[in-house]
């Protein structure tokens, strides 16, 4: 009897040891880097990349993208666009806020009302103007009624939902302590945030899709890219971005023994934009002459060691809005000179203009230097003026006091042409920075906004793509690749159209 008891105890201890050992495999810390402080960890106020990055772990939306960029349920159990203006959503009933309070339809309605509040300055406000009302059917079912059919009727509900029980009596959300101590429903909780120090996230064990295998995420505060790169090579980071110079010139074979490289097209492009309010740029021949004089592939090869592609228009490849029939104009110095000669410019009377860009983006500054060099061969003299970002934005770009600018846009999976290309966005606070104005494009944008059928929407956006590209308000330059190094200690990582983070919840760290 005693022997049997001892054996049972040994078996129990062995089982407990194995269980504990296996559990420890899934409780390691995922070490990442962050280069700036989040300003507001709040999904409706996050306007900087650091705030957005942290918010995505802590908050959840009703819907989300899957790895292929298709809309699927998140906190929603199901959804139905019953008519072009009525969206019915049933909510999952097993969701809790990080403080243990149950999530319900009241939180969704509160989030909507907060976004619509004129005292709240959120970039999401315009997306929700099309909603007439939200009806609460019960605690786990809502009906959203739109003023008009809306092409982003589903996509706007990817916004992180806010907790009503915490914020309903908050006097000023813009300055609320909540923005530094957020409570969400996401896969991770905020454990520690002190400005200019590491940010620590702990797993949410009550997460509705099952708790993540990695129990802690530590964002190491590393403002300097060189320091981040050194820490990655020393295996002090598990995942980090690489630039083309690093991957092609600064890695030795040992690095590849420890890391796997994932590379994909980024959701951003860089362009040379003309101030179309300036009469000289209103002649398309002059814009074409600049375009023909630029060897875009050479720019990509020099800047990115070929880790990128030529941008052919305002919406990104592989999206529903991309028009693959539109090609980039050819590099042709003879055509450039011919057009310039027609305009009265030649080697003796060279055309000149000034390009403005920001000192904070060294890649674009280098691109400006390459462009300057290439244009000399077409008898074009381009001066470069570089300013600190805020000065560049506030004194040059927004007041439109420029000849031309070198800038870029990040583009979402559901591009919104109004913000950049509609004539009504050419004004204070608008992002139609070059003053583009085409009534035909305005009408197409307005038609697209009231189109919920994807094939029709795609057709309209492809026509917008072709029209804008042909009119050349920008010279679309390049789309860089995103290059990510991931430690081989991290298992279950896979690349996708939206990147590697689509399945981070099931990553395991050995």
Notes on the structure:
Helix content is 31%, strand content 23%. The chain has 510 residues and is of the alpha+beta class. The protein is globular, with a radius of gyration of 26 Å. The strands form 5 sheets. Strands 11, 12, 13, 14, 15, 16, 17 and 18 form an 8-stranded mixed beta sheet that branches. Strands 1-10-9-8 form a 4-stranded mixed beta sheet, with helices on one face. It has 3 domains: 120 residues, Periplasmic binding protein-like II (D-Maltodextrin-Binding Protein, domain 2); 130 residues, Dipeptide-binding Protein, Domain 1 (Dipeptide-binding Protein, domain 1, Alpha-Beta Complex); 215 residues, Dipeptide-binding Protein, Domain 3 (Dipeptide-binding Protein, domain 3, Roll), CATH 3.10.105.10. It has 16 helices and 20 strands.
- Tally of domains: 3
Q: Low-confidence parts, pLDDT < 50 over ≥5 residues? A: 1-27
- Average pLDDT confidence is 92
Report the β-strand fraction as a percent range: 15-25%
| Radius of gyration over C-alpha positions, nearest whole angstrom | 26 Å
SS elements, strand count:
20
Please name the CATH architecture of the largest domain. Answer: Roll
- Percent in helix: 25-40%
Kindly, what is the distance between the CA atoms of the first and last residues, rounded to a whole number of angstroms? 41 Å
The CATH superfamily title of the largest domain = Dipeptide-binding Protein, Domain 3
Shape: globular
> Which fold name corresponds to the CATH topology of the largest domain?
Dipeptide-binding Protein, domain 3
How would you characterize the largest beta sheet?
A: 8 strands, mixed
H/I helix tally: 16
Q: What is the CATH class name of the largest domain? A: Alpha Beta
Quaternary state of the chains:
single chain
Structural class: alpha+beta
């Amino acid at each position: 009897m005693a022997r049997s008891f001892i054996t049972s105890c040994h078996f129990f201890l062995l089982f407990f040891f194995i269980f504990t050992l296996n559990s420890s495999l899934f409780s390691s810390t995922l070490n990442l880097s962050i280069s700036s402080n989040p300003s507001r960890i709040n999904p409706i106020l996050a306007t900087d990349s650091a705030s957005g990055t942290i918010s995505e772990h802590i908050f959840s939306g009703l819907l989300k993208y899957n790895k292929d960029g298709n809309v699927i349920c998140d906190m929603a159990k199901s959804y139905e666009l019953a008519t072009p203006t009525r969206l019915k959503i049933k909510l999952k009933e097993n969701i809790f806020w990080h403080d243990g309070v149950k999530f319900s339809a009241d939180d969704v309605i509160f989030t909507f009302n907060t976004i619509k509040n004129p005292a709240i300055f959120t970039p999401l406000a315009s997306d929700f103007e099309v909603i007439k009302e939200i009806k609460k059917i019960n605690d786990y079912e809502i009906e959203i009624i739109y003023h008009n059919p809306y092409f982003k009727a589903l996509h706007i509900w990817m916004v992180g939902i806010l907790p009503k029980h915490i914020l309903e009596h908050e006097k000023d959300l813009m300055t609320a302590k909540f923005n530094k101590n957020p409570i969400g429903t996401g896969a991770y909780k905020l454990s520690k945030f002190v400005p200019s120090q590491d940010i620590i996230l702990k797993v949410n064990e009550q997460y509705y899709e099952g708790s993540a295998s990695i129990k802690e995420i530590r964002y190491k505060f590393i403002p300097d890219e060189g320091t981040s790169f050194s820490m990655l090579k020393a295996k002090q980071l598990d995942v980090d971005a690489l630039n083309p110079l690093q991957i092609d010139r600064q890695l030795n074979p040992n690095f590849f023994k420890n890391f796997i490289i994932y590379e994909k097209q980024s959701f951003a492009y860089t362009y040379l934009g003309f101030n179309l309010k300036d009469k000289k740029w209103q002649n398309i021949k002059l814009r074409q002459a600049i375009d023909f004089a630029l060897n875009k592939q050479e720019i990509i090869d020099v800047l990115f060691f070929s880790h990128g592609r030529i941008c052919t228009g305002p919406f990104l490849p592989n999206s529903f809005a991309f028009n693959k029939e539109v090609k980039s104009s050819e590099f042709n110095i003879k055509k450039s000179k011919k057009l310039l000669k027609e305009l009265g410019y030649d080697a003796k009377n060279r055309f000149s203009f000034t390009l403005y860009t920001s000192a904070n983006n060294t890649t674009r500054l280098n691109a400006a230097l390459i462009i300057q060099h290439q244009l000399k061969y077409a008898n074009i003299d381009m001066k470069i003026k570089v300013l600190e970002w805020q000065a560049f934005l506030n004194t040059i770009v927004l007041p439109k006091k420029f000849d031309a600018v070198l800038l870029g846009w990040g583009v979402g999976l559901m591009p919104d042409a109004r913000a950049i290309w509609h004539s009504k966005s050419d004004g204070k606070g608008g992002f139609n920075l070059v003053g583009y104005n085409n009534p035909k494009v305005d009408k197409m944008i307005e038609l697209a906004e009231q189109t919920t059928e994807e094939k029709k929407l795609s057709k309209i956006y492809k026509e917008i793509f072709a029209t804008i590209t042909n009119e050349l308000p920008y010279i679309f330059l390049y789309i860089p690749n995103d290059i990510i190094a991931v430690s081989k200690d991290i298992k279950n990582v896979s690349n996708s159209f939206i990147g590697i983070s689509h399945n981070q919840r099931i990553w395991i760290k050995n």
